[in-house]
Amino acid sequence: MNTQTTSPVIKEEEEKEEGTKEVVQEEEEASHPYAFHVSGPRNLANLNWRDLISSSWKDANYKRTVIACFIQAVYLLELDRQENRTQENALAPNWWIPFKYKLTQTLIDERDGSIFGAILEWDRSAAMADLVLLRPSGAPKAVLALRGTLLKSPTMRRDIEDDLRFLAWESLKGSVRFKVALEVLKSVSDTYGSSNVCIAGHSLGAGFALQVGKALAKEGIYVETHLFNPPSVSLAMSLRNIGEKAELVWKRLKSMLPSSSNEEAQAGNDGDKSLSIGLKSWIPRLSSSFKNAGFGVGKWVPHLYVNNSDYICCSYTDPECSGGGEKINDADKENIGPMNGQVAAKLFVVSKEKQKFHEAHALEQWWSSDAQLQQANSKLISRQLKSLYTSGGTSPQVMQGKLPR
């Protein structure tokens, strides 16, 4: 019987080779551009027992930073999946572990199996290990984070399909991702209470977060919402604006034409009404996501973070984006609800010199230590949320809704 033995020299060389591979792999992981210590936020204080007295989460900059990191984690969850990373070398966990959160659920797009969202919940065990005995004030119990478009072949097709859906119709409700995100957010809100839940997204993910949050607000479920670089440009909106301008020009033109009799004046008025009805009934049909639902007073105030050098979201700061062609009494108060004077949204604009698009649209800018934000107004978001501020009968569900913390 032949027995095969391994030479001690050969065995030693194999062990050295394996050790070298492990070192190289560790070095590659340590220098990866998406590693938390490479591209994550700088000078970020760790949570400790002092947060029981003065919570870091009460600082708007800290909250914005952490939530942006959670969204980055969702991008990396999908990249980890595509690159077959294991639990030992995955990049995503390091973007939530420092903040004492844990991954409890991933949202999967059934069309391609990609991860487009995740639920991150407060990790009580990890917090207690660092003597944080209670969840700090302002820290949500659960966060639903939604990523934007990934230009990688496994998921790029489905991402772009939803991008085009918004571009054409200004609505994402027909996407399977909208349905999944809505169901998950409802479930989490039922579990923890809407005041303890947050939804956030970047780019396309911000578009989903905006529409999911609004859908729940109409049911009286108000969740804290953070939208980074939300899409604002759509063909539907452009056509509507063209129609509004054409209607305005037509009215001005008609006012300049002489009328010889009351009959002609009446005929002119009838013509104006016919044109106005035609324009208002045809063009706005392209934008089905912002129909007036007839609900009562809204209490949902999303936070928007935009960059004027980013053409995807810059329309939110465009003063020409008026409220859908309808007269607003508080015209000078751009992000005030037209019916009840409540704030429709909080808009924050990054203050930097003109940037290239990839920099202006990047998620990284929102945890950058040199980010200077200015609060601004937005007629566009006021128009989009107008159905939450109508004077119709107040729904019992709306009256029972709770304000987010």
What does this structure look like?
The protein folds into two domains: 29-233 and 292-400, Rossmann fold (3-Layer(aba) Sandwich), CATH 3.40.50; 237-286. It contains twelve helices and eight strands. The chain has helices at 8-30, 36-39, 60-82, 124-129, 153-169, 176-192, 204-217, 235-256, 262-282, 357-360, 379-384, 396-400; strands at residues 101-109, 114-122, 142-146, 197-202, 224-228, 303-306, 346-350, 373-376. A hairpin with a 4-residue loop joins strand 1 and strand 2. The longest helix has 23 residues, at 8-30. It comes from Glycine max (Soybean). This is Fungal lipase-like domain-containing protein.
Topology:
Blueprint: H1 8-30, H2 36-39, H3 60-82, E1 101-109, E2 114-122, H4 124-129, E3 142-146, H5 153-169, H6 176-192, E4 197-202, H7 204-217, E5 224-228, H8 235-256, H9 262-282, E6 303-306, E7 346-350, H10 357-360, E8 373-376, H11 379-384, H12 396-400
Parallel strand pairs: 3-4, 4-5, 5-6, 6-7
Antiparallel strand pairs: 1-2, 2-3, 7-8
Helix pairs in contact: 6-7, 8-9
